[in-house]
Amino acid sequence: MKKSIGGGLLGLLAAAMLCAGCTADEKSDTQELRVGVLFYNQDDMFISAMRQELDECFRKTEKQEECRITVSFFDSMGNQLTQNEQIKQFIERDYDVLCVNLVDRTDAAAIIDEGKKADIPLVFFNREPVSADLARWDKVYYVGADAAEGGRQQGEIFLEYYKKHKDVMDKNGDGLIQYVLLEGEPGHQDAAIRTESCIKTIKEGGVEMRRLAGANANWRFNQGKEKMEGWLAEFGDGIEAVISNNDAMALGALEALDEPEWADLQIQVLGLDGIEEAQAAIKEGRMIGTVLNDAKGQAEAIVQLAADLGRDETPRAISHMENRVVRVPYDILTQ
């Protein structure tokens, strides 16, 4: 018999659980699949978009494959200890498969070992465990994108805009682009790789760059706005471009630029993720572009893996999968 969960945790589980399809109490011959999905933090604008795509994909799969899928979504609120406790609850309740957006990618080994012990497959997404951890068990998969490719495409957007609008971007005509950089979390592999790949692509394209300042804004809109406000106060019209590791921080920078005292500055802003708000800003001419981090494509791969693994089936072929890793391609979005 599985040990009981304390009243407080049980209440949390009940409050957080959202089910796709029929309830477990309904009698049916249809196979039931129970899936636990854990997000590092749903305040993240991209993760919020992923949540919606996953919900739609699970419902669609349920209809197409005539199986009953119960999905429980949890927000770990940026706390790995909270996420570990949530995973423990799913394991105690004998879920069929867990889909995990890690808070801390270095904590994957312990989660994998617990999953293996209980024989509950794991599909990690968005935050990639180190390769040694993925190799710990053959029922562990990862779905995400290639951070270097995303950064390269960011650089390509920058170069294309520079070629067409050199006088607009190089406002002071010194042959250098003075830029500020909004980075994700300290130590996050995607932040470092996106930055390095983007700047390298721009420089290899023949554009000289001068970094005025950079700071971690932890993928957040409000922190992006706060950092930009400080840089505007310090550098003012000396800033020619803002390069951001994601759209949320870029949109925060745009909000700072919308303040009356800065509204006349011509500062070009570049993001990454392709969320709806960023696409709207591009159409309005407020951002020069972004790179689509395909939330729908990733959700489809996650759900297909979860459906197969949860039923103890060999996963069907998925595009761009190699060695249990699926990398969904990015795409460039500009006017």
Walk me through this protein's architecture.
By secondary structure, the protein is of the alpha/beta class. It has 2 domains: 7-145 and 294-329, Response regulator (Rossmann fold, 3-Layer(aba) Sandwich), CATH 3.40.50; 147-292, Rossmann fold (3-Layer(aba) Sandwich), CATH 3.40.50. The protein is built from 12 helices and 13 strands. Strands 2-1-3-4-5-12-11 form a 7-stranded mixed sheet, with helices on both faces. A 4-stranded parallel sheet has the order 7-6-8-9, with helices on both faces. Strand 11 (321-322) and strand 12 (325-327) form a beta hairpin. Helix 2 crosses helix 12 (295-310), helix 3 runs parallel beside helix 4 and helix 6 runs parallel beside helix 8 (189-204). The N and C termini lie far apart (59 Å).
Across the major sheet, the strand order is: 2-1-3-4-5-12-11
CATH superfamily of the largest domain: Response regulator
The beta-strand count equals 13
Give the terminus-to-terminus CA distance: 59 Å
CATH architecture of the largest domain: 3-Layer(aba) Sandwich
Q: What is the fold-level CATH name, i.e. the topology of the largest domain?
A: Rossmann fold
Give the overall shape: elongated
Individual helix count: 12
Judged by helices, strands and strand pairing, the structural class is: alpha/beta
Low-confidence stretches: 1-28
- In helices, the fraction of residues equals 40-55%
Q: Please indicate the count of domains.
A: 2
CATH class of the largest domain: Alpha Beta
Order of helices and strands: HEHEHEHEHEHHEHEHEHEHEHEEE
> Which percent band covers the strand fraction?
15-25%
Q: What is the makeup of the main sheet?
A: 7 strands, mixed
